[in-house]
Amino acid sequence: MIRSPHLVLAGGGCLGNLYPGLAVAKQLSQLCPKLELSFVGSGEPSERHEALTVCHNYLSVPAQPMPRSPLEGIRYLTDNAAGYWASRWLLGEKNASLLLALGGPVSAVMARAAHSRRTPFVLLEANARPSRTARALGGFAEAVCLSHPESQTGMPVETPLVVTGTPTRADFDGVPRLVAEHAGQKQLLVMAGANGKRAENLNRGVVAALTQVPQQLEGWRIVHQAGQGQLQKVEQAYQASGLDALVVTQLDEIATAFAASDLAICRAGASTLAELAAAGLPSILVPDPAAPENQQAANAANHVAAGCAVSAMENASEPLEIGLSRQLTELLTNDLRRAQMTKASEAISRPDAALRIAEICAGLLGLGSVRAAA
């Protein structure tokens, strides 16, 4: 009996490493309904739920990011060693035809296991600054899919590079048109992130900055996604400041929120930036200083250089609220500048990113062209 090819996607740990892979998986499942799709992630319940909406199987292996303390170092060594051997077993047991590594700790141990087993693998490098895994293993991959052309300079010369962009959720199809049709009261969207602990500083800085620009906020509505465990604190901060804001823990309809907004304040994760570009939404970026290898700072710099955004640094020599209030003072009142940023965002958007990566995987799996089947 001839087995159907089996694509294993590895990522997770955050939704930014999950959604791009699922977008590619959807493209491939349309081409070949018999293609077996498995997702290997961190084991988070929300991640499992999302993955199983597209993939047939969900599995998890232990893996940790680069340590920041001796205690974290011990866990890094033990978990990643266990994750490596579990990954080797999993790839063999599941008879994987191809691994698509999406980024993050689980992706790294799976890619190393695939290399050691000689299982073909493709790397998705969504960040402007290539990760250690991409730099170390890129030369052994069948392809490395980059989000930014500038990332090519950080990779070994023998690496098979393809600039594809970062896939976005299907909800973002047509979002630029919705933004263009949006009228009435302007909306400022604040996205502090899902991780409550890491969102706390950004929440505090944003509210403090907004209290310094009350005149510029006239005619604006504030929607603030505060993150897990932060709702009450942020609501109280707005009440104390005298500002009105709709504060939520999470945004369920993220594409709709982007479409209804005129300016965003958010972190600089690769998937977030791809979705901002897809929506043509101007932004003030605050890179997460805890991001691995300072990748968000590089992502933000790339987006700023393209004219899509401005930035404010959390670990700068001045308080975050000072940098934010300076950027808000101009952007809240400068309609022309925001319109220019929207055009710049749309210019770098890559709506066919998922399709292009699916084509690469389809060729390696012997499935032919996705475009031909569409």
TrEMBL record:
PANTHER family: GLYCOSYLTRANSFERASE (PTHR21015:SF22), UDP-N-ACETYLGLUCOSAMINE--N-ACETYLMURAMYL-(PENTAPEPTIDE) PYROPHOSPHORYL-UNDECAPRENOL N-ACETYLGLUCOSAMINE TRANSFERASE 1 (PTHR21015). Its EC number is 2.4.1.227. The keyword Transferase applies. Keywords: Glycosyltransferase, Transferase. GO terms for biological process: carbohydrate derivative biosynthetic process; carbohydrate metabolic process. Residues 8-144 form the Glycosyltransferase family 28 N-terminal domain. Pfam families: Glyco_tran_28_C (PF04101), Glyco_transf_28 (PF03033). One of its GO terms (molecular function) is hexosyltransferase activity. Residues 189-354 form the Glycosyl transferase family 28 C-terminal domain. This is UDP-N-acetylglucosamine--N-acetylmuramyl-(Pentapeptide) pyrophosphoryl-undecaprenol N-acetylglucosamine transferase MurG. The keyword Secreted does not apply. SUPFAM superfamilies: UDP-Glycosyltransferase/glycogen phosphorylase. InterPro entries: Glyco_trans_28_C, GlycoTrans_28_N. The gene is murG.
